[in-house]
Amino acid sequence: MFGFVDNWGGDVETGRMRDWPRGVIPFGGDYNPEQWPREVWREDIAAMQRAGVTFVSLGIFSWSWVEPSDGTYDFGWLDEVMGLLAAADIAVDLATATASPPMWLAQAHPEIAPIDHDGQRLWPGSRQAWCPSSATFTAYATRLAEAMARRYHDHPALAMWHISNEYGCHNTPCFCDTCADGFRDWLRQRYDSLDALNEAWGAAFWSQRYADWSQPLPPRRTPTFPNPGQTLDYRRYQSDALLQQFLAERAVLLEHSPGVPITTNFMTMRHFSHLDYHRWAAHLTEPVDRISTDHYVVDLLADPWAEQAFCGDLTRGIAGGGPWLLMEHSTSAVNWQPVNRPKPVGGTIRDSLTHVARGADMIGFFQWRASRAGAEKFHSALLPHAGEDSARFAEVCRLGEIAGRLGEVSGSRVESQVAILWDYDAQWATQGPALPSAQVQYPDLAIEIHRALRERHVPADVVYPGADLTAYRLIIVPTLYLVSDAHAAAIEAAVATGADVLVTYFSGIVDERDHIRLGGYPGAFRELLGVRSTEFAPLRPGEVVALSGAHSGSVWSEDVALAGAEAVLTFTEGPAAGHAAFTRYAVAPQGGSASGVRWYLATRPDRDTLAEIVGTLCASAGVEPVLPGAPDGVDLTRRRAADGRSWVFAINHTDLARTVPVTGVDLVTGRHTGGQCEVPAGGVAVVRED
Ligand code: GLA
Ligand code: ZN
Fold first, then answer.
1. How far apart are CA 27 and CA 48, in angstroms?
2. DSSP SS3 for 225
């Protein structure tokens, strides 16, 4: 017993002592009290209460504080903090504290350090210096997870477990000998025989044939291009190795702290592609697991809001369409971009609610109090260096109030008639060596098409090709370079039952082993789309070619020949002049049921052209906007509860107030809209529809 709380109360039946905050959207962030003297803790809790904080994530980087030396635990300080939080009714998402190994472990086991591509060891002195394949690391991490679970499983502050932190951030890919061994085991499981491995990797090429299981290696630095099959498998292996680390800790929590939800924070951002989150999510199941993610606005992107909205929809897809948790984002500037600008006034609230609009049922930040020392001392926080007397803290308090009023949306689901397919295997393969064009970046078209839909007030789900596609009116297949037979068949099946489909260039080209699908491009989708190309003609950096009409394209062209489809737009210049750039194929109904219209896009259109194309697709597929007649520059989504209640989220990205035609109570202002909801410049409305 912890002394300072005499009656823990709670739900005896399940063994769970505290519920996740109900009736609100939980609001809070990472709390790192070990960075501050004890006196500050009470001030922290009081300020959290003023800000409306209802949860914190505690102990993420606390390993060296809870286990200061091998097998010796110091829970005193954590008991005290947990007690303060329990007394203040602030729920704790408690870390297993295993994200960053302590110095004593690094010293005792230097072999757990990751080794980079060039054989360079990554030393302690930063964070997460551990090898994904290290069984030594697993042993120490699970021992700590067990100690944490035994200590806190029935603590009245505990509401959720948080395993590690952003798996794969900083320590993958690792190329050490332990990973090499792990990779060989993984390959044996996957391929069974060396013949199958040699076949999958195309090892006949450049004399790479493997004659013994001791021979395959991680794709370390090679004289020239490494083997693409080996590279792709290594990415799969590293993701799986980290998944095993996660599952090992999870198993410990299930045993010693049953009934408490578990999460680990993903990182669904454009620039992070180390883990196959769809594969991970397949191991995360209700009612135990919660899908959570972190998202940071990348100021240097041409359109950071496009990436932000896309990633929210991707996270929802990973969560199977259900609600997810926004574990971290920033109130204002980060510290890891070349230039770190603050968010505009109102930007904290707008960014947070953008995620809620896309299905987040929690608003979390890194971190509660801005650090005064360490590598992240210039990262914004809920409580800035300036203290409570600051405009940012005032905005944080306002957000806390809003989160307190948004509880009714919890559990509701975002409505969408459009699916954009996203696949990590395809992303990894398009990052592989020696492809037709380095200009082709896997996320580009996916995010651009998503943006064009958003601009028409059409929400989209970003989903795995293996997801259930049958309910969508329109399926977008952007740059799905690698596609398995099963996924290609699933897309075809959805089209056969009436969904329209848009496939973009460099899709369907290889199978899951990265082997070319022979007979002409776009391989797996040739027959579906009624087109066939025999040569790619990628465009040079900066090269723009005219298309018929006043249209243009960049990045890609190819010698598309029509094999059933009709040309809607044609290249009028460049290496594929005279060939179709955008095609339409409508197959006559067979046996009464009409299959969907199939579109192929063989270039990256300019923004206006893409807007037109997306308009054409939506009209053809009968895809409707969230609200008709809504103004430009406002993002709209609708969340709907199982009982039919619905909420329209309107995010105003312009610097003028906008009026949105929706009737109901705006939960942000508490006022009835009377049919026309005014959304302030850079502001947000959340309208419970009448
Ligand atoms: C990540 C980490 C946090 C912090 C933030 C800074 O998301 O999980 O610990 O480093 O980045 O943006
Ligand atoms: Zn390793």
1. 10
2. coil
pLDDT of residue 13: 36
Residues lining ion ligand 2 (Cβ < 5 A) are: 131, 133, 174, 176, 178-179
β-bridge mates for residue 599, sequence order: 502, 584
Rounded to whole angstroms, what are the CA distances from 630 to 455, 616, 625, 635, 678? 10, 18, 9, 9, 11
Below-50 pLDDT ranges, the chain: 1-15
Q: What pLDDT sits at residue 2?
A: 27
For residue 142, give both structure tokens. Answer: 């699970």
294-295-298 Cα angle (round to 5): 150
Q: Is 166 a catalytic residue?
A: yes
- Tell the residue nearest (CA) to atom 12 of ligand 1: 334
Find the catalytic residue in 249, 307, 328, 455: 328
Whole-prediction pTM: 0.97
How far apart are alpha carbons 526 and 77 in whole angstroms? 63
Query: Is 328 a residue of the active site?
Result: yes
Select from 480, 483, 526 the least CA-distant residue to 504.
480
Are 31 and 367 contacting, i.e. CB atoms less than 8 angstroms apart?
Answer: yes
Instruction: Provide the pLDDT for residue 545.
Output: 98
Indicate which residue's Cα is closest to atom 5 of ligand 1.
Answer: 366
CA atoms 636, 642, 644, 647: torsion sign: negative
Q: Cα separation of 667 and 402, whole Å?
A: 8
Left, alpha or beta for 555 (phi > 0: left; psi -120 to 50: alpha)?
left
- Find the 377 Cα to ligand 1 centroid distance in Å: 12
Cα–Cα distance for residue pair 483/479, rounded to 1 Å: 10
Whole-number pLDDT of residue 19: 86
pLDDT at 1: 24
User: For position 553, what pLDDT does the model report?
Assistant: 98
* Secondary element (H or E) of residue 67: none
